[in-house]
């Protein structure tokens, strides 16, 4: 395996980092968060212009034909800057669901619009009782003469604010697989309630009360397409958290060198040296797990990949909660303040853990997979 | 050893419970309780307690307190937390009060005690400074004698509730010439004195309890000095050595566990209740065991304190470390138990709701939970950081 970035990947990483350093200073970010809109459309346009929204989309639909590795590189840098624009929700989850499960006509029509940032679609798959796991779907789609009528609700739709359409997972009576449908954001009978998350991003809760959807709005793929896209989502999130951990550790190391107590920089205390060493080790284990997930997506069969992704989701989220929590601890009081950066990394880690299924849930999935594997011996 | 509960404690619990049921107004119960209650509530609650003769539950009889034993105090705290009464003013009850009882002049007691008992004066603690946190003895806020007044200049930080307090107890440097511990004095200052500015600090739990407090030529009557000039450090050591048994804040943990059980049997995951998920049940069981162990540790520290056994200090430090880590674990678990909604930033629990705004999903149950989780990141920082506590333990137990 080659863990070095090739020159194109290096260029990509550099360009995202430059943007984050320049346009996404903590002050600029705070202003964006305070504006309570889940980010700026100006930034989104720049993401599009720089090709970040199309990096991992197929070339025939206006993408750059890159891979999940490109997505991970971008996400890691966005994680360092605590970027709040809905890269995960719109550029990854919705776009990849469409790429994996859309009809040729849908892809031809919509992917170029997603790639150039002129449209946003959000993926509405999670429900209160599903807690991030795509197979639990209680939202109903009943067939009628014009297509389908939707009834039910979706929680925590990432990137829904400012989206023109949603991809909604539904259960059609009698159908084995779940059904994915494109739903216009202004549909009659669709109630949208926006709410902020702890990390300054925004989501919507969607309530469908007899929403009419045309038959040609049905995607080809079902659960398999959703899983393929969630694989991208989990990797994106892991990469974001590796970036968040990197930055937390950098900030903390800097603080240990400057903060004086008892007449010395607090970095002189061995307890703190060992703690930051543990934080760094935790991050590198997490980074390695991210690499394992990337390798698994490239090489493994479905079942193995599914297990590795769940393992990665849980391990990286736990690592991030530890590292970012300790970032606060080593800062003392200043770490507790809203005006100081370090606490916001912890908030991001908490939110990431809850999105796309919590750590316990993913570990339980791994345990179940292990049980059936070992019992079959 | 004898593990039979003290029967007199059971009847005492009954007495407290009866008081809470029969004599406490309904709107003073069912409050959230992880930080100090609002000024108005603290004051009202203090009046209710005082009218019942319980205005100072932690103090000796000779000081006007209840004279309760440490185990009785734990029972009282437990029942109040379970009922969700407002908090008292922890600064005066647990920190300053014992200091005044020990070191204050009769005039100082006459000035402050009635207001404390009647719930007319709230206090804040002015110890930490921007450059002096764990290394408190390095503090720089100066107080210079000018006739019969001290003139105070400097800055304090992390002053919890300074914006809702009437008085502050302050550590100041009165002599820059001597060894740093020897030059510190303990002053009581009226927050309305000209020259004091309080600036809010918003914390990551989306609340305002922290402040910066600035002193610009603040003139404080010299009679407000507690103890002798330069005695501030030994008074502070006395103050910080109080109440080891209560640092774990166990009653609040028990309340969180109660909420956790509630969520376990009301929230659904897939087709099941949360408690039917083996991984959740396991986690709950682990936390239950830890709460039980920490609960027993609290009893042990209480028993040691009761006998003035100096070992209560080391065990108390361990309790501080593990109890506060447990607070972090339980409050994180609560938020995780909310599933998707754990990520939602509900309206600040300390602010009134806009009736025009529709409720967010699960708001009535979940509001405030994440705020508690974020606030508890501070539990391992304030009151002596876990790192400093660990050094104390190693030194006291093993002379390292
Ligand atoms: C929510 C909250 C409320 C507070 N309320 C009050 C209040 O009302 N009044 C008041 O006076 N103060 C208050 N404080 C201040 C609190 O007491 C200090 O934050 C605490 O003493 C730590 O000091 P610091 O923040 O300066 O951190 P620092 O002392 O700078 O510590 C930074 C890091 O270095 C570590 N460290 C420092 N020294 C050592 C050492 N010798 N060995 C190993 N590690 C070390 C610490 O453990 C920490 O991890 C409050 C703080 C918080 C967070």
UniProtKB/TrEMBL annotation, chain A:
Tell me the ranges covered by the Acyl-CoA oxidase/dehydrogenase middle domain, including all copies.
122-211
Cofactor(s), by name: FAD
Domain spans labelled Acyl-CoA dehydrogenase/oxidase C-terminal: 220-368
GO MF annotations, alphabetized: acyl-CoA dehydrogenase activity; flavin adenine dinucleotide binding
Q: Please name the InterPro entries in this protein's record.
A: Acyl-CoA_Oxase/DH_mid-dom, Acyl-CoA_Oxase/DH_mid-dom_sf, AcylCo_DH-like_C, AcylCo_DH/oxidase_C, AcylCoA_DH/ox_N, AcylCoA_DH/ox_N_sf, AcylCoA_DH/oxidase_NM_dom_sf
UniProt keyword list: FAD, Flavoprotein, Oxidoreductase
- What family is this protein classified in? Belongs to the acyl-CoA dehydrogenase family.
Q: What is this protein called?
A: Acyl-CoA dehydrogenase
Q: Which organism is it from?
A: Noviherbaspirillum saxi
TrEMBL record, chain B:
Q: Name one GO molecular function term.
A: flavin adenine dinucleotide binding
* Protein name according to UniProt: Acyl-CoA dehydrogenase
Q: Which UniProt keywords apply?
A: FAD, Flavoprotein, Oxidoreductase
* The UniProt record lists the keyword Transmembrane helix: no
Q: What family is this protein classified in? A: Belongs to the acyl-CoA dehydrogenase family.
PANTHER family with a match to the protein in the record: ACYL-COA DEHYDROGENASE, ACYL-COA DEHYDROGENASE FADE29
Cofactor(s), names only, from the UniProt record: FAD
Indicate the segments forming the Acyl-CoA dehydrogenase/oxidase N-terminal domain, all copies: 11-120
What's a GO cellular component annotated to this UniProt protein?
Answer: plasma membrane
Chain ranges of the Acyl-CoA oxidase/dehydrogenase middle domain: 124-218
Which InterPro entries does the record match to this protein?
Acyl-CoA_Oxase/DH_mid-dom, Acyl-CoA_Oxase/DH_mid-dom_sf, AcylCo_DH-like_C, AcylCo_DH/oxidase_C, AcylCoA_DH/ox_N, AcylCoA_DH/ox_N_sf, AcylCoA_DH/oxidase_NM_dom_sf, Mycobact_Acyl-CoA_DH
Q: Does the keyword Flavoprotein apply?
A: yes
Tell me which Gene3D superfamilies the record gives: Acyl-CoA dehydrogenase/oxidase, N-terminal domain, Butyryl-CoA Dehydrogenase, subunit A, domain 2, Butyryl-CoA Dehydrogenase, subunit A, domain 3
- What positions does the domain Acyl-CoA dehydrogenase/oxidase C-terminal occupy? 230-397
